[in-house]
Amino acid sequence: MESPIPAKNPVQAWLLLILLALVWGSSFILIKKSLHTFGVTEVAAGRLFCASLFFLPIIFKNFRKIPTDRYPYLLISALTGYLIPAFLFAQAGTRLNSSLSGMLNSLSPLCTLLLGVLFFGQSGRLVQSVGIVLGLVGSSLLIFSPATGHLDVADPYAFLILGATVLYGININTIVRHLSHLPALTMTAGTFVFIGPMAFLALLTTDLFQKIANPANLQPTGFLFLLGIFGSGLASVLFNRIVQLSSGLFAASVTYLIPIVAIFWGIFDHETINLQHYVGMAVILSGIYLVNAASIKFDVSGLKFWKSNPS
Q1: How far is CA 204 from CA 37, 210, 235, in A?
Q2: What angle do CA 132, 134, 138 make, to 5 degrees?
Q3: Degrees (nearest 5) of the Cα angle 20, 22, 291?
């Protein structure tokens, strides 16, 4: 029998949120470093395949415990929370600085709330709408600001990150509505049952395994394994656990902290961040703050709508 929905634990949720921000905030620089040797498909599918190998023992032990009527939702989560965003982020990483990618990724909570209101029955408030508008204005400042590094004004690659945040919003709402009763480790391993084979098929079209076997590629291979095991594997378990301990919107707020970590790594890697990017990030965070402040009662209640309509 599946475990009941875990009791809310704000302190543990905050600690896990900070840890998750450190892991995911470091993912952008690992993507950038991996792309020096590996192609977009190799990085995107490679990190997911590594994570799938990490989850194999858990899959064998726990997958049968998942009710079959949850399989479609696990597939949706696999596609929107992992597989498609991994390719979008890898492709964006060929043009965007890791710090800018981290900033744009902070729109995830806004997308989560907006999709929840439009398609998942969540109630919206005026102040939340103001927050959404501010977030979109802030992201526009990031996208259309003067370039940093090799980034051109209005670079379309920035929209790949925005697309990923929309998919993350779909994934979070799906987890909260349909999968939150599953143990976090079982839920995450279940999604990688679908991700692993698809990632492996994608890798067959590349020469990743030959590159990994080359001793000269030891360092980028290490970056790729770190990206898969920590950025896609352990981080996914942490994220799903945070959803259970608090709410989907709170879990999405990890992206408040990710830009700070991403900027730190960007500066460490000699990336240049201009004033307009900082202004854009400040506007985004202000919008997200309004969204979160207006949603505190809704979050703390444990997302009443979804708990009362679990199917």
Answers
A1: 17, 11, 26
A2: 115
A3: 60
Burial class from Cβ neighbours inside 10 Å (0-12, 13-18, 19+) for residue 217 reads: middle
CB 66 within 8 A of CB 184: no
Lowest mean per-residue pLDDT among 102-111, 127-136, 233-242 = 127-136
* Higher pLDDT among residues 272 and 163, named by residue: 163
Residue 272 has a pLDDT of: 66
- Residue 131's pLDDT band (cuts 50, 70, 90): confident
Instruction: Please provide the average confidence, as pLDDT, over all residues in the chain.
Output: 78
Residue 4 clears pLDDT 50, i.e. is over it: no
Q: Output the pLDDT for position 180.
A: 82
Q: How far is CA 25 from the centre of its chain?
A: 10
Backbone angles phi, psi at 122, to 5 degrees: -80, 140
* Best-predicted range by mean pLDDT (13-17, 70-74, 303-307): 70-74
Write out the chain in H/E/C secondary structure: CCCCCCCCCHHHHHHHHHHHHHHHHHHHHHHHHHCCCCCHHHHHHHHHHHHHHHHHHHHHHHHHHCCHHHHHHHHHHHHHHHHHHHHHHHHHCCCCCHHHHHHHHCCHHHHHHHHHHHHCCCCCCHHHHHHHHHHHHHHHHHHHCCCCCCCCCCCCCHHHHHHHHHHHHHHHHHHHHHHCCCCHHHHHHHHHHHHHHHHHHHHCCCCHHHHHHCHHHHHHHHHHHHHHHHHHHHHHHHHHHHHHHCCHHHHHCHHHHHHHHHHHHHHHCCCCCCHHHHHHHHHHHHHHHHHHHHCHHHHHCCCHHHHHCCC
